[in-house]
């Protein structure tokens, strides 16, 4: 049976429209190289994600957003499709506020990468910080580090003057003497230490940092095929880092503006991973209790409720 000309025309126009839509399509993803996200750096440097999406006519637009809270807000508004790397504290706080952000893949479990740094001849411990001005990114593992350290001394965030700043701004404020202490990470932490600034504490013993790749619920529901490709790109970038250590270290050093020796140090602290495991779930549950008890989240959210099955080992 011969297809009517009008139907043929309608189908042709439909296919053209779909193709045009795909060619005009853009995937918005945050580029988060801090604290020391080598797989993310490799993904962007080697255009791994672009190569997976170009056959679909989709371009990739990278956004420099370090703050997990800001990434979560951007995903809620639809201006960001994928959060390249978020700390799970930000993910939990977002979900507690009714902003459904899902973990789609692992990233790392850094340890000494996060730190609280003071001034020479200044505070030596959390007790010394009472009444002092501290800069750092709100709603992050660094924020949690500060609250946890103060809590151990019977203090709260209200006992200090906490000023919301991104890591680069916090580092600059510390180095210029405008704040008494700063919550910084990775390259900034190394540079501050080399400049003689004392490290008051790291996350070790206070918080178990867990970083992950995330996406908003709406994007996951509407573009499940793209989520699979993004995760595949993340996995490929991880494999490249594991199989090309020397080149990866050189890339990280260049992107962070540090020496390769310092990059090796950060690499050893980072503990990259592709997926979360049951120990991570237990740690997330403990973090949720902490967030509730310290007024950083208004309601409890089940950890498994915002993790895709594909993000688990």
UniProtKB/TrEMBL annotation:
Stretches assigned to coiled coil: none
Domain Solute-binding protein family 3/N-terminal: 26-244
Keywords of this entry: Signal
Signal sequence, start to end: 1-22
A Pfam family of this chain: NMT1
SUPFAM superfamilies: Periplasmic binding protein-like II
Superkingdom field: Bacteria
Gene3D superfamilies: Periplasmic binding protein-like II
Family that this chain belongs to: Belongs to the bacterial solute-binding protein SsuA/TauA family.
Protein name: NrtA/SsuA/CpmA family ABC transporter substrate-binding protein
């Amino acid at each position: 049976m011969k297809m009517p000309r009008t139907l043929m025309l309608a189908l042709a126009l439909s296919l053209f429209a779909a193709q045009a839509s795909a060619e005009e399509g853009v995937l918005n993803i945050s580029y988060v190289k801090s604290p020391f996200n080598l797989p993310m750096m490799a993904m962007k440097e080697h255009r791994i994600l672009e190569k997976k999406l170009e056959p679909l006519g989709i371009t990739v637009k990278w956004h420099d957003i370090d703050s997990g809270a800001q990434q979560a807000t951007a995903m809620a508004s639809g201006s960001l499709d994928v959060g390249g790397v978020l700390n799970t504290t930000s993910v939990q706080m977002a979900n507690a506020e009714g902003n459904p952000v899902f973990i789609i893949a692992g990233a790392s479990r850094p340890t000494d990468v996060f730190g609280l740094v003071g001034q020479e001849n200044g505070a030596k411990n959390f007790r010394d910080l009472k009444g002092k001005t501290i800069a750092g990114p709100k709603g992050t593992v660094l924020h949690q580090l500060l609250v946890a350290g103060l809590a151990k001394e019977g203090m709260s965030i209200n006992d200090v003057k906490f000023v919301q700043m991104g890591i680069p701004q916090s580092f600059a404020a510390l180095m210029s003497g405008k704040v008494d202490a700063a919550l910084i990470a990775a390259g900034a932490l190394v540079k501050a230490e080399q400049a003689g600034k004392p490290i008051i504490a790291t996350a070790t013993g206070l918080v178990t940092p867990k970083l992950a790749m995330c996406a908003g619920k709406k994007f996951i529901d509407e573009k499940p095929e793209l989520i699979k490709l993004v995760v595949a790109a993340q996995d490929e970038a991880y494999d490249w880092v594991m199989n090309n250590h020397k080149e990866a270290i050189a890339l990280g050093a260049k992107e962070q503006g540090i020496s390769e020796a310092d990059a090796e140090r950060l690499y050893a602290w980072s503990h990259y991973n592709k997926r979360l495991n049951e120990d991570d779930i237990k740690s997330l549950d403990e973090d949720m209790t902490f967030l509730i008890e310290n007024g950083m989240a208004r309601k409890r959210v089940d950890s498994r409720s915002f993790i895709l099955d594909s993000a688990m080992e």
